[in-house]
Amino acid sequence: MLIEVRDLRKYFPVGGSWSDILKRKHKLLRAVNGLNFNIERNEVFCLTGESGCGKSTTGRLLVRLLKPTSGQVIFEEKNIYDIAPREFRKYRKEMQIIFQDPYESLNPRMSIYELLEEPLRIHNIGDDEERLDLIYRSLRDVGLEPPRDFMVRYPYQLSGGQRQRVMIARAMILNPKFLVADEPVSMLDASVRAGILKLMMELKEKRNLTYFFITHDLSVAYHICDRIAVMYLGKIVELGPTYRVILDPLHPYTKALVEAVSRGEIMYRRRPKDISIKGEVSNPIDIPSGCVFHPRCTEAFEPCDKEEPELIEVEKDRFVACHLYK
Ligand code: SF4
Question: Which CATH superfamily is domain 3-94+176-325 in?
Fold first, then answer.
């Protein structure tokens, strides 16, 4: 196992003044509300769910870009939040993140060479010549050839797909073990998505990487992820091998997500329909009692609005949080 997540929570104070916050009279937005899961070495672990369910916050917590309200992320047997900032530099090299937006994530005033050299300088890696060699090889690894041509360009001179390749090269140049990919292809044209996904999978095999892949697109998850966790209002409601969860969903919310994409759409990546569940996602500041999904669930029954279901193993390697599977 590479990563173990234990009862991870992230609450953001919202509304009220600073004095309300200091007196703890403010409201809390429960973005991540008690997550427990493991990520195996060399696995592609997917987190999916509707916008605003807490996926991106979880990704940032896993690489310590955010501090949790409580809980632990154990990376190679150490809780990353207990590591002193100086010592954490070593871990930072091993845990990288690729963001959704290749247009916003690259400093437009830096050349591609400078953008790739920056992390090497921060981590004191190599002299000028060694860094040039590493940058050259990284650009070649992500398919930006000839590398010498790309090094002197600026982000505005690249297409969306090329910028995302630079983002991947920047994340990979430190030779990490673990990579969080936060919707890495959702802003790209359909024609370049497949190329970026293929590149990421090739790099994973070549470098023995482990991915935490955030996506709302079940067809992408189906094609590249080993296991999938379905998140709703800061909680995991279903977790298991991707093909089993998508082809035979158990939780009513997962069923609704899968219903919105036909099998053909998942297999051949066609455009999904709207999700066929009632109402809107509840306000994360005012989380429903009992099962968080009960106001929208078409199968809700007696205990659902009072008792919160636990995430339990209902079949080998399949976990569901729903009273239907008690
Ligand atoms: Fe629906 Fe009840 Fe299951 Fe929640 S616990 S998903 S409300 S059936």
Answer: P-loop containing nucleotide triphosphate hydrolases (3.40.50.300)
Binding site membership of 299 for ligand 1 (Cβ less than 6 Å): yes
pTM recorded for the entire structure? 0.91
Nearest residue (CA) to ligand 1, atom 7: 294
First-last CA distance in the chain: 28
Phi and psi at residue 41, to the nearest 5°: -65, 140
Instruction: Summarize pLDDT for 289-320 with one digit per residue, the tens.
Output: 999 999 999 999 989 999 999 999 999 999 99
Q: Hey, which of 298, 299, 308, 325 would you mutate to test ligand 1's pocket, going by the most ligand atoms within 8 Å of its Cβ?
A: 299
Ligand 1 touching residue 230 (CB < 6 A): no
Tell which residue, 309, 295, 293, 312, has the closest CA to residue 255.
Answer: 293
235 lines ligand 1 (CB under 6 A): no
Look over the chain and give the mean of its residue pLDDT values, rounded to a whole number.
90
Cβ atoms 75, 3 nearer than 8 A: yes
Exposed (0-12), middle (13-18) or buried (19+): which is 273, by Cβ within 10 Å? exposed
What sign does the dihedral 9-10-14-19 (CA atoms) show?
A: positive
- What is the reported pLDDT for 261? 74
Classified as helix, coil or strand, 311 is coil
What tens digit of pLDDT does each residue of 149-188 get? Answer: 999 999 999 998 999 999 999 999 999 999 999 998 887 8
Q: Is 181 in the pocket of ligand 1 (CB under 6 A)?
A: no
CA 326–ligand 1 middle distance (angstroms): 11
Helix 160-172 / helix 190-207 crossing angle, nearest 10 deg: 20
Domain ranges of the chain: 3-94+176-325
